[in-house]
């Protein structure tokens, strides 16, 4: 190992050790304390937030019915209670039941044979035997046999289920009337925090009269469910092990 590689490896190990020390200090400072909840924040002010841009149809002029007590798209006599403006809330009914089972099987077989000989060669077959190796005859000059076989099978089985509700905030209205929503929910049970994140694009027409919408009607849906805390921390490998898993080629 050259000196440059040794220096790079040493610096990387020192960096990982410093990161582990920082994480260790935070953990030691919170011994006996439950994990903290994240503060309530504006989703559009978070780092990495970008306004959604989607293909838009041609703009249409709004039509109004004269001398009518009802507004277009309204479901209430006095006011439409569904979310439609930036900052409005809408309840997302997350229900995921994913089951997949795939069974594949392939089988292939092939057998070939080629024989070539000269049992009758105008009387010269006996003289031809003198030039052939011992044990060979002109009647069996060439014989080729080939046989191949391949067989493969694969099975995939997956079952996932998630059912819960989360309130999301309308962060943007698109030119065609669709709404961009984003919601985050945190639940702390003892020393474990469960997180649920929902984001995507919805149509106002898909919002029910009770201001709820099913997760299956969210376009470009981004749904994440996980946790953090003591149990999750124990299930994760240490920083040094993660670094060594990346560096070691075997």
List the helices and strands and how they pair.
Layout lengths: L2 H27 L59 E28 L8 H4 L13 E32 L5 E11 L2 E11 L9 E3 L4 E11 H6 L3 H9 L3
Parallel strand pairs: 1-5
Antiparallel strand pairs: 1-2, 2-3, 3-4, 4-6
Notable traits:
flat, six-stranded mixed β-sheet, 250 residues
Quick summary:
It contains four helices and six strands, in the order αβαβββββαα.
Walk me through the structure:
The structure is a single chain. It is built from four helices and six strands, in the order H-E-H-E-E-E-E-E-H-H. The protein is of the alpha+beta class. A six-stranded mixed sheet has the order 5-1-2-3-4-6. The longest helix is centred in the first third of the chain and has 27 residues. The model has no long low-confidence stretch (mean pLDDT 78).
Number of strands: 6
| Rounded average pLDDT | 78
Main sheet overview: 6 strands, mixed
Poorly predicted parts: none
């Amino acid at each position: 190992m050259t000196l440059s590689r040794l220096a790079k490896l040493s610096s990387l190990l020192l960096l990982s050790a410093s990161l582990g020390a920082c994480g260790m200090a935070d953990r030691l400072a919170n011994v006996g304390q439950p994990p903290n909840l994240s503060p309530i924040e504006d989703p559009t002010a978070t780092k990495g937030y970008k306004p959604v841009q989607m293909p838009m149809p041609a703009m249409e002029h709004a039509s109004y019915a004269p001398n009518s007590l009802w507004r277009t798209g309204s479901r209430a006599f006095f006011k439409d209670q569904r979310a439609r403006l930036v900052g409005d809330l809408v309840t997302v009914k997350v229900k995921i039941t994913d089951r997949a089972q795939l069974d594949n099987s392939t089988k292939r077989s092939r057998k070939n044979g080629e024989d070539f000989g000269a049992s009758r060669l105008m009387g010269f077959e006996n003289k031809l035997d003198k030039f052939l190796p011992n044990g060979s005859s002109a009647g069996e000059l060439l014989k080729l046999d080939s046989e191949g076989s391949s067989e493969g099978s694969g099975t995939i089985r997956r079952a996932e289920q998630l059912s819960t509700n989360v309130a999301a905030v309308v962060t943007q209205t698109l030119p065609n009337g669709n709404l961009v929503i984003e919601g985050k929910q945190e639940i702390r049970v003892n020393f474990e925090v469960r997180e649920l994140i929902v984001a995507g694009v919805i149509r106002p027409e898909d919002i029910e009269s009770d201001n709820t919408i099913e997760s299956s009607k969210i376009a470009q849906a981004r749904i994440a469910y996980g946790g953090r805390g003591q149990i999750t921390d124990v299930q994760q490998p240490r920083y040094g092990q993660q670094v060594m898993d990346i560096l070691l080629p075997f």
